[in-house]
Design goal:
CATH architecture of the largest domain: 2-Layer Sandwich
CATH topology of the largest domain: Alpha-Beta Plaits
Radius of gyration: 19 Å
Order of helices and strands: HHEHEE
Number of helices: 3
Shape: extended
Distance between the termini: 37 Å
Strand content: 25-35%
Structural class: alpha+beta
Strand order of the largest sheet: 1-3-2
CATH class of the largest domain: Alpha Beta
Number of strands: 3
């Protein structure tokens, strides 16, 4: 097996180490191999998308945290947004479900 060297920021390394413990990877090499496999599979899948597609985006956020940013995004992408739903989860949190449709 070929050995490669990768530099990562300290914060990312902490998250990698936590994932190794939480998900039962044997070591850093194993988690990096799995991450690379997943990246390659997802990239390949995205390249194969053709024609018109539909998707939903679900966002849960603290009500005061966005300051209208979600509304701005919705207006900026109005040509592909077919539906959106806004709901109050409780007095502090909101839920948005945005349905988008467009060319792959």
């Amino acid at each position: 097996m070929t050995i490669i060297s990768v530099s990562v920021p300290e914060k990312l390394l902490e998250r990698v180490e936590n994932s190794i413990r939480e998900q039962g990877f044997a070591n850093r090499s194993e988690i990096v191999r799995q991450a690379l496999r997943t990246f390659i599979m997802e990239s390949r899948s995205l390249k194969e998308l053709k024609g018109e597609i539909a998707a939903s985006i679900t966002i849960i956020y603290e009500r005061d945290a966005t300051k209208g940013q979600i509304s701005e995004i919705q207006h900026s992408f109005g040509d592909i947004i077919s539906t959106f739903l806004h709901a109050h989860i409780d007095e502090d949190y909101c839920l948005e479900v945005i349905v988008v449709k467009g060319e792959a």
